[in-house]
Specification:
Largest sheet: 5 strands, parallel
Helix content: 55-70%
Strand order of the largest sheet: 2-1-3-4-5
Keywords: DNA-binding, Phosphoprotein
Domain Response regulatory: 4-120
CATH class of the largest domain: Alpha Beta
Modified residues (4-aspartylphosphate): 55
Structural class: alpha/beta
Number of domains: 2
Shape: elongated
Mean pLDDT: 87
GO biological process, one term: regulation of DNA-templated transcription
Low-confidence stretches: none
Distance between the termini: 45 Å
Radius of gyration: 24 Å
Order of helices and strands: EHEHEHEHEHHHHHHH
Number of helices: 11
Protein name: DNA-binding response regulator
CATH architecture of the largest domain: 3-Layer(aba) Sandwich
Length: 210
């Protein structure tokens, strides 16, 4: 059975080029082409293609919005972003919305065709430059054990209590110190762990514990 594909792309030449090369394959077929977001939004649920090739920056809306609105209605459809944008925000918003692939325009047609097959069989294809950005993002997020070595015993105790959901006043009462002292310790914890808020500090602490 061939893989059914819809193309959502407002650049007509690129849309038609994709259709031509896809339809030349024996194992896949383009069942719809859309040149704007509204048409795609209206018609994709009834078509329920196996794979949607989705441009991010359409003239009337973002492709990310379309995925956010349709993903629940179309759980069996896989979305591949095919775009000229490589900035972190668009990459991660696309993946959060439910895209399972992210290709940069300019990829070879062989790469695009293999990505369609890959996503259809459960993969998550990405251009090399995108994959490196994603990996780099997670490397930056991973906690450094050396950060925790810098915490004093009291700061570790306070971080443990924060992770248990205690408020500053409750920590102050428990440790027989003032709220101002708790705040000072928390400020030091944020600085040493290179985080900006309590949630990030607790996430790092939990990751370190595990």
């Amino acid at each position: 059975m061939s893989i059914s594909i819809a193309i959502v792309e407002d650049e007509k030449n690129y849309n038609n080029a994709l259709k031509k090369i896809i339809n030349y394959q024996q194992d896949m077929k383009v069942i719809a082409q859309f040149f704007d977001g509204n048409e795609a939004l209206k018609n994709l649920p009834d078509l329920a293609p196996d794979v949607v090739m989705m441009d991010i920056q359409l003239q009337d809306m973002l492709g990310i919005e379309i995925i956010e609105k349709l993903k629940k209605e179309m759980p069996d459809t896989q979305f591949i972003m095919c775009t000229s944008f490589e900035d972190d925000e668009k990459i991660f918003n696309s993946l959060k919305a439910g895209a399972m692939g992210y290709l940069v325009k300019g990829e070879s047609m062989d790469k695009i065709l293999s990505s369609i097959r890959d996503v259809y069989h459960g993969g998550a294809p990405m251009s090399f430059s995108i994959a490196r950005r994603v990996l780099g993002h997670f490397e930056r997020k991973l906690p450094d054990c050396k950060d925790f070595d810098e915490l004093t015993a009291r700061e570790r105790e306070i971080l443990e209590l924060l992770s248990q959901g205690l408020l500053y006043k409750e920590i102050a009462d428990k440790k027989c110190i003032s709220i101002d002292t708790v705040k000072k310790h928390v400020g030091n914890i944020y600085r040493k762990l290179h985080v900006n808020n309590k949630v990030e500090a607790i996430n790092k602490f939990n990751h370190f514990k595990n």
